[in-house]
Amino acid sequence: MSELIQKITMPKWGLSMQEGKVNGWLVHVGDTLRQGQEIVEIESDKIAGALESSVEGTLRRVLAQEDEVLPVGALLGVVAPAEVSDAEIDAFIEAFAAGFVPGEGSGADAGSRVQYAEIDGRRIAYTVQGDAGPALVLIHGYGGDKNNWLFNVDTLAERHTVYALDLPGHGDSDKALPADAGPAGMAQVVLGFMDALGLDAAHLVGHSFGGATALAAAQAAPQRVRRLHLIAPAGLGAEIDADYVRGFAATNSRKELGRLAARLFADEAQVTRALVDDLLKFKRLDGVPEALAAIAAALLDGDAQRMQLDLPPGVSATVIWGELDRIIPVAHATALTSAAVHVLPDAGHMVMMEAAREVNRLLGA
After folding, report:
1. What is the CATH number of the domain that holds 140?
2. 267 DSSP 8-state letter
3. Could you tell me if residue 67 is inside a domain?
4. Are 116 and 50 found together in one domain?
5. Each residue's pLDDT tens digit in the chain (365 positions)?
6. Which end of the chain is more exposed for a tag (fewer CB within 10 A), N or C?
7. What is the pTM of this model?
8. Alpha helical stretches, state H, the chain
9. Domain carrying residue 319
10. Are residues 144 and 180 in the same domain?
11. 91, 188: one domain
């Protein structure tokens, strides 16, 4: 009956994750698990979050204990129906341990390694995962990168081919910006990216500045957008935390970066020292301060947002917002009158991290 046994393993959240710490189980042996249910809290060196179950059935065995640090791919638990004997589960666990090599078969490595596309003379970094269903392109926000989607990619890849790119000036992409550093210029990069990968049309998922970029791409080429999925997007109203935008571009202080990053989350404990260290390393790369300053100038007119975007005819959209967003007010969520709007409680600007399960459900729908 070994074919009835399913495993729960340490996830790989982001390309650099090698191990994770078990902070605590949210379910108990004997519980019936549902697909997508949060089952165990995991902490990596970058961020903490809840692992969602990818399987359904009865949790028969818990192997990873609280505070235990295990490599990516390690066995955390076993799910199996009642007719599978304890001896068969013991044999499964023994066989897994005998064949497990840390660093091999850890899930996202092969599909999510960084690749590059040449677009208008710039090298644009991206990852791709999954090969089922229509293409879905993830566009991060100002100062972010493709790893902002680390809690979303695995789930979305079950039903889509998922591309997560680094916009110019960000992540592993070239730091030189298009002449228009605002959403319209970045939209041309996204459309060029789709051209380079042979994507005639795709779902566009944009967060914050990436949301404005996705909206601008839909305005420029509506026939290439299957649907817009806008997560706390810029460009729908005047109000914005301009102090955050300018401060992030200007500072090279670890303390100040930590203070600014805390505004992104409803739960400020999400901002780990490792996260701030990564931001600091990014800020110190050649060309990054200039790129961020140029984007900030394109985004802001004084303390207000410069652009006011609208949904082009014939393009449908979903808008997702964290109720406790401190960067762009949730009141903007209803600006696109024909869009389906979802406001999620207890989440801030990084709602796709803080409410990943619900965001994944909405995107999957």
Report:
1. 3.40.50.1820
2. S
3. yes
4. no
5. 568 999 999 988 766 678 899 999 999 999 999 987 889 999 887 677 788 888 899 999 999 999 999 998 999 999 999 999 999 999 999 999 988 888 654 444 445 679 999 999 999 999 999 888 899 999 999 999 999 998 899 889 989 999 999 999 999 999 999 999 999 999 999 999 999 999 999 999 999 999 999 999 999 999 999 999 999 999 999 999 999 999 999 999 999 999 999 999 999 988 888 889 889 999 999 999 999 999 999 999 999 999 999 999 999 999 999 999 999 999 999 999 999 999 999 999 999 999 998 999 999 87
6. C
7. 0.80
8. 86-99, 109-112, 153-156, 183-196, 209-220, 242-250, 254-262, 273-283, 288-299, 351-354, 356-364
9. 111-364
10. yes
11. no
> Looking at the 3D structure of the chain, how many domains does it have?
2
| Residue 305, token pair as written in the block | 């947002």
* C-alpha pair distances (Å), 164 with each of 159, 161, 182: 15, 10, 19
- In contact, 159 and 363? CB cutoff 8 Å: no
**Residue 359: strand, helix, or coil:** helix
- Residues 26, 145, single domain; the answer is no
- Give the E-state strand segments of the chain in sequence order: 6-9, 19-25, 32-33, 38-43, 48-52, 57-62, 69-71, 75-79, 115-119, 122-129, 135-139, 161-165, 202-207, 225-231, 300-301, 304-305, 317-322, 340-344
Q: What is the CATH number of the domain that holds 32?
A: 2.40.50.100
Q: Are residues 171 and 280 in the same domain?
A: yes
As a whole number of angstroms, the distance between CA 216 and CA 53 comes to: 36
